[in-house]
Amino acid sequence: MRKYSILFILLVSVPFFSMAGDMEGDLHIKVMRTLKAGPPEVYNGYAFFTFQTHTPVRYVGISFLHEQFRKVHLFQRNDKGVLFFAYPVEEGMTHLDYRLIVDGLWITDPLNPHTYQDSQGISISRFEFPKEQIRVSLKSPLFRDTEQQVVFYLQTEPGKDIYLSGSFCRWDPYLYRMEEIRPGLYTLSLRLLPGTYYYAFYKDGRRIKDPLNKEWRKSTDGQEASLLVVPPRS
């Protein structure tokens, strides 16, 4: 099994009732009424994960692919003994790829039958959001608050090989292949440091601006390119 090089600090578990005041009312009720663990679900704008074990564990965490498995989010426990974690669903998300960490052991979610193997043979759980609850907003690029994550989207014909390139990768046209998350909708998330960048998509070997981004300039090679400004972290 591949070992992830992650440095993180495990916080002391906080009893559920001490955090309840910070939780939205409907989500609080959801947590209180959860009697047993089950498959992940979308509830009131959150991806809701649960875990239950009959043997004592020191901690259970969850780590996400879009965060490059660099963060471990700890589960809390409700008064029924069910461990839970609620992750806010951001605009543009259609699924979450993740792994669980139980007392330091990386595993797939035993309550989620949907898994796949990455290029290095590591099994990863995937939670596909129900179509009626997918909140895709065709805005590009989108910024996530954590780790300077920038999300790009392109809506075009399905079944294409779409690549993202730009000044952040010296315009390598084949370095970043975008994922088709539903027919004709492609996306890719990158971690970029604060600064000004130029980028474009490559489709059928042809370079095109981001049609969802009104800001563009001519790059140093004289071609049109979309403008991206990553703000400094607050």
Description of the molecule:
The longest helix has 9 residues, at 25-33. A hairpin with a 2-residue loop joins strand 1 and strand 2 (46-51). By secondary structure, this protein is mostly beta strands. Residues 1-24 have low confidence and may be disordered. The two termini are 37 Å apart. The chain is 6% helix and 40% strand. It folds into 2 domains: 16-133, Immunoglobulin-like, CATH 2.60.40; 142-230, Immunoglobulins (Immunoglobulin-like, Sandwich), CATH 2.60.40.10.
Question: What brief labels describe this structure?
Answer:
about 230 residues; mainly beta; 20 strands; Immunoglobulin-like; 6-stranded antiparallel beta sheet; 2 helices
